[in-house]
């Protein structure tokens, strides 16, 4: 039987509608600052989409654009200003940054309670110690999509392909927190296919089209495709969707899978950041 398609767009729309009605009745609105540096076309598309969604749900949104020659100091000054702004609850600096700027330095200059991307060392430390305050939005999106299937995941085998600090590792940690047994694969892993075939939950976060083939997927597995790749003008994931859906139990499409859920999770984090600010 072909896999059930996990409609990330529909689930995300439901979350956004819910947020919108919550925000309507609030006097103070959650505020998100979006910082874009340089002229990376993909980054611009992501920031435009985040800005549009912010406005749709009724959040306050500030956008700060810098040219590709921006220097570290001006960016640090902006983050300090945003850290001190009572109207701003969440700060998102779109990555990647131009090479003259130290991404680590800029990311970690964001106050942890305003770190809606969950990328600072403090946020990741909390996540890794099982005491999450702000988790990376894409990792949250992956978990919500898995949970949306209603599949019991405790005790199951999960394989995460990709070990970046912003996707692969946090996803693996969140799966571990849910009592799955996690294997993390990367570019040097030997025998990925054999490991993937044992996965009840398979998450692909690599950036290589059709890396995950039908032969690598266990029958009935939940397959979550984080990858975003442009092939002949079309956006595709890391999973060979057409063939894998013949064996998987559940599968996310690309587009309309993890992408829209990531934006919805960012909005949830911004609301959470506003609630955190009240406690500080
Ligand atoms: P990244 O930092 O480039 O990391 C890619 C990971 O894949 C690395 O750990 C790398 O291993 C591993 N890898 C590369 N080739 C491999 C191979 N042949 N077999 C197994 N593993 C391999 O990328 P990222 O930021 O995590 O993003 C991954 C993908 O998700 C990209 O397509 C990105 O565009 C997409 N993405 C989507 C969303 C969304 O909202 N949908 C959000 C973020 C990212 P090494 O560590 O050994 O190099």
Written description of the protein model:
This protein has 280 residues and is of the alpha/beta class. It folds into 2 domains: 27-111, Rossmann fold (3-Layer(aba) Sandwich); 136-258, Rossmann fold, CATH 3.40.50.720. It is built from 10 helices and 11 strands. The chain has helices spanning 8-24, 41-57, 72-84, 103-107, 121-128, 137-148, 168-177, 192-196, 241-244, 258-279, and strands spanning 4-5, 31-37, 60-66, 90-93, 157-161, 181-185, 201-204, 222-225, 229-231, 234-236, 250-251. The chain has a 6-stranded parallel sheet. Strands 3-2-4 form a 3-stranded parallel sheet, sandwiched between helices. A two-stranded antiparallel ribbon has the order 9-10. α1 (8-24) runs parallel beside α10, α2 crosses α10 and α6 (137-148) packs across α7. NADP nicotinamide-adenine-dinucleotide phosphate binds next to α10.
